[in-house]
Design a protein that fits this description.
Mean pLDDT: 80
Strand content: under 5%
Largest sheet: none
Number of helices: 2
Structural class: mainly alpha
Distance between the termini: 37 Å
Length: about 80
């Protein structure tokens, strides 16, 4: 029997901007929006790309594992006075 418990919670907000190109947005501009082969902008695009890959991997796992997941019902609390 194979039993895997996965609970992934990521609670962080990171605001990253390039000093030279503060208006660059990797989500909207993509790789073509990188001006002058700027290393910080390329890194921002890489972070955005891997973030989207992680989100897609988690979603695809949930689609596959969702129907096979066993829903646990919490145990009833013992009645007071027994």
């Amino acid at each position: 029997m194979l039993k895997i418990n996965v609970k992934l919670v990521v609670k962080s907000k990171v605001v990253m901007k390039c000093d030279k190109h503060p208006r660059y947005n990797p989500e909207k501009d993509g790789l073509g929006g990188v001006v002058g082969n700027c290393h910080k902008c390329l890194d921002l695009f890489g972070v955005h790309k891997f973030h989207m890959q992680m989100i897609n991997a988690v979603r695809s796992y949930q689609e596959v594992a969702g129907p096979h997941e066993i829903k646990r019902v919490p145990k009833m609390a013992k009645a007071v006075g027994n």
